[in-house]
Queue: 3 jobs
Job 1
Amino acid sequence: MNRVLPWTLLRYLGMQFLIAVGTVLAGFMVIVFLFDFIETLRRFSAKGDLGIGSIIGMSLLKMPNLAEQTIPFATLFGATWCFARLSRSSELVVARASGLSAWQFLAPSIGLGIVGGALLVAIYNPVAALMIRKEEALEAKYSGSRPSVFGISPTGLWLRQMNREGPAVINAQRVRDQGAALDGVTIVVADTQDRFLGLIKAQGARLRDGYWELTGGEVRWAGRETTPEPIARFGTPLSRAQIEDSFVSPKTMSFWDLPRFIRLAEQAGFRATQHKLHFYTMLSTPLMLSAMILLAAVFALRVQRGRGIGLLIVGAVLSGFVFYFAGNLTRALGLSGVVPVTLAAWAPAAAATLLGVAFLLHLEDG
């Protein structure tokens, strides 16, 4: 009988945690959707042919990605609400009186946080990445923009630029100087109607102010003599910063696709720091959710011991924002190369976990 009671109680605590976190997350997403819908409506209000249904659809496509970013906050606020409510109703008092320690009644919530974080990364993230890619494609279609497209594959770097004469697709076998120098260059030139105009081949290309300086460049124009003509430069609107920023956004890539992309980028000559940081941050998601639960439990135990609930909940919320801004700081340091990418990604979750464990040990045994 003693074995059945703890299992029943732990299952009950786990359900209360899921309900609280789910409710908070749903409330967050309603608010986020309304703000995003209003902003999208404002941006596309001049597009008379864009109906309200299309705008709602674009906002809905963003929601999985926005929910993925919101889940750590929903976990912190939901867990704080859940534990505080259980404390005020004396349910945690009864649980502790029955012989359960703080670690035992936290076990179902932490276990759900770890499993939920793993599912979020392995299953939910690829779906969110697919939907945000569709949303960005729709936004480009409706806005009429044709941005430069950058890609990396086993055949090298692919870059699409827009000139006044029309688009050009550049392929390079190797990249140096973070995209400012290319080796083994092939450029396909088209007009504004995407009709083929010519093909340029060069041993190398160096980005200058407003043009590519070609080494050993030759061009074959469509409809002309087959003998290639020498060419020393090719105009471009791109800058070095634009090339570095033209990587496919990490949020549009599945967790499972990131390692291959990072490997290809490094083979091509790029550092792919942003993508590596995103990948390791996603790996730390289960630990981050567990840290949010531990922080919430610290304040719930304080409530149980007779402190003011309002002040302590405010403290829990503020602690979450502190770690959020700390995460932004470590991310900036990682992107700038001041600290290793792995450390920048794991430090916020690890620090929050260690602090939560230390406070709980003090409250439980101190």
Job 2
Amino acid sequence: MWNYKTPGIPDDKFERTENVPITKEEVRTIQISKARLKPGQIVYDIGCGSGSISVEAALQIESNGKVLAVDY
């Protein structure tokens, strides 16, 4: 899907239906950069919606970290 460590996956790379909003690429990039995530951390994404931030966070914390994402 995305072969880079840097945040900023293009919006069109996410599969979603028209009714599901997505946090835009520019906003995700800033949020993930400001979080300064490191491998092995745990991330909670409450109200994850489409999960785009969860996906970007998972790339930063790598396979030894954990992302817990919930929405209704």
Job 3
Amino acid sequence: MDLLKKFWDNPLIKKLIIGTGIFLLIIIFLMIFVSCSSKGKIYSYNEIEKILIQKTKTAYGKDGNLPSLNQKIDISIEELVNKGLVKTINEYTQDETTSCSAKVTIYNNNGYYLYEPNINCGEKYKTKTLQDTLIKDSLVETGNGLYKVDDEYIFKGDNVNNYIKLNDVLYRIISINSDGSVRLMENKKNSENTMTTWDDRYNTEKQYNAGINNYSSNGLNSRIKDKIHNIYEGDTYTDDVKAYFINKESCIGKRSINELENTGIYECAVKSESYPISILALYEYSRASLDPNCTGIVNSSCTNYNYFTSISNGFWTLTADKDTSYKAYKISSGSVMKSNASNPAYLLIVINIDGNTVINSEGNGSFKNPYIINMGK
């Protein structure tokens, strides 16, 4: 022991031992760092989907081989890898044990190009689509949630997880249509949306500008139809957002305040031509209530257990009054009001998107954690 103590007390030897130890620690640290660096970042599947969208859009966005109007093409990940645009899924995840396939579908939707990724790693991961997720998460037979009604799925109740974001704009999911498309309505007015009349033309019955409550007749448009078209044709929506909008007919039939059915038989008796955006038909508000006493459209029970009552802005519906030539229906503080068409209210835009639209893995449809459409951003 004395010999070791004497050996350690030698300043030169002590410095040599300490220096050697520090050197070895540095070597070990560098080996660990190089090992981690060589592996690179581990990407989540959502991040990989975004990369697939971004790289495909960059490489094919100006390509002459893009699909023609309303057609689609599939780009396999093998093609993207061979062109040096992306890595394999296994390289991104650093998981060599899982077999995955992947592709990007480019769809020419009304002249706007939509890029939808699809990754399939079996039980490990599959790209989430909106329709499948809604049915899995929200389908119920009682209480708040998504109900199957004939060949549609409809959100009913006042506490439903039906929030979704598209390009940072928050929407409420109204329904899954019979063709599998999903119907959304803005949760609140957008910055470009000012108050507007339903119509303010001269009415011969009233002998002043009370408005004419025909949405469209004999080639003549109401003010509200013109406003809807102006919103779409203006700069409210970017091209990559318009790529999601599906052309759909709108229910523009008139109804009497005393008619009781909330199934759409009155409103959908007359339909407009297909167009990418619209606004709510009146029956869509009433049928969202879970109160069994909600019959008709002005029954106060319809405000119960109905998520539309939480939308504070007074907004127009497409539906006009059958018993007059100058009144239309709006929803104000959750209740239906029959109002002169010349009065102002907001427009809350309704859109329809493909049920196979890709959404992020995170999100449960709540206000704080909405579903998010994966646009690759």
